[in-house]
Amino acid sequence: MSKSYKTLKSRLREVAILQSTGALLSWDQETMMPPDAAGFRAEELSLIASLAHRRFTDPAVGDLIAACETDAVLISDAEVVANLREIRRDWDRATRLPAELVAEISETSSLALEVWRQARIDSDFAAFRPWLEKHLRLQLRKVECYGVPQGGEPYDALMEDYEPGMRAAEVERLFAPLRDAIAPLMAELIGSSHQPDPAPVKVKLPGDRQREFNRRVAEGIGYDFRAGRLDTSTHPFTEGVAPGDTRITTRYGEYQYVESVYSTLHEAGHGMYEQGLPKAELHGQPLSEAISLGIHESQSRMWENQVGRGRAFWTWALPIAREVFGAALGDHGVDDYYAAVNVVRPNLIRVESDEVTYNLHIMLRFDLERALVRGDLKVSDLPGAWNERIEKDLGLVVPDDRRGCLQDIHWSMGSIGYFPTYTLGNLYAGQLWETVTAEIPDLEESMARGEFDPLLAWLRDKLHRHGRRYSAPETCRRLTGRPLSHAALIRYLEAKLRPLYGTGP
User: Which of 52, 127, 306, 321 has its CA at a distance of 20 to 30 angstroms from the CA of residue 204?
Assistant: First the structure.
């Protein structure tokens, strides 16, 4: 190893340690921090973000990168070349942002999070509006610093933070046929005379029992509690803090134990991806990091939906649920649960939506965000635009902002450009699932026995261990043999749902 590369990796590890400290403070803010500490926590997070940014964007780091890029020995190693490629991308991008802007975004995110949390409880968009307006101004300043990609639009510069290389026009191209396929499928299922009964999952269950069941489910599918935690937060999330420290959260409701289970499965999917990355050896280097949020979401959505909403999962999980909850569950069988968790019905809340209508929520947010960034929509007009679109797409009337534009945490964090990655994740998951089930023909039988190792091992070998060595599109082609499209997801949805609704084989 050259001295320059060794020094570069050491510098990156120091930056990663600072970022890990910030991640731990952010996790604490969302799970355990007393509300009155919010002001000082914002200062702490702002300082750490600034220190990490300054340390990474030091010109000396650029010199080290340049020296490594011309080292004949280093550039003969494909993994090193991939690592340097991603380090260069990150450094070039980070050096365009002033440290003061990075600090202000971090501080604003921390303060806005507390305002959003209370505004959501109060259903008071007016209270949150100034913070969203400030976030939008800060994000537009980022666009000015990054520059608009050639032939693209301002939104592309923000989306690059979450899905490198993706452009709004390409998202629109992918979403259009998906929407065209979802609309008739939704109408077909909702209009069927045979409707699955949701009663099996509409039971009141104590929170402590729910927590025990969720932990057993997460552990059963492969989430490692020796290197992770499961806690409670307003909005479930995953924080890959550091090597050996991945933290996930969920939320609970007396009559929503299944929603809690799917929230836990979703975050455990994220968590297992984080735990499968080679962080112990490469912490701070791109080869120890997730490819993109779309790929990250493919992992969470696959475990939540393709696994968790399958008959095999409930064949395994229902006996555990009976053990934990006792007679409160009634005498419903596996097929009853399988039908109940696959009810297709429009819902005001994104995270409680079924697999068919969920993507309409993401398309709504994508379109509204694009309009905000373009200046075609004012923040003050956001609730009205949101409510109008929900009624048009889902046929629902939004009764208040809590169940409308305040429901998600993302805008309180300034995460504009994030939302499209959820549906991109669904599309990736659809293609990956089609591939993995072809390569592991007895996967359903294994999962019904509670054996999830074959699936996790496949994902670890094919995807997790490579970090950012390959781009998201390249990963998709390598693993599935074709570029990303809506087709596999629609095939999966039709094959599962039509028999349940009596509308097809």
Answer: 306
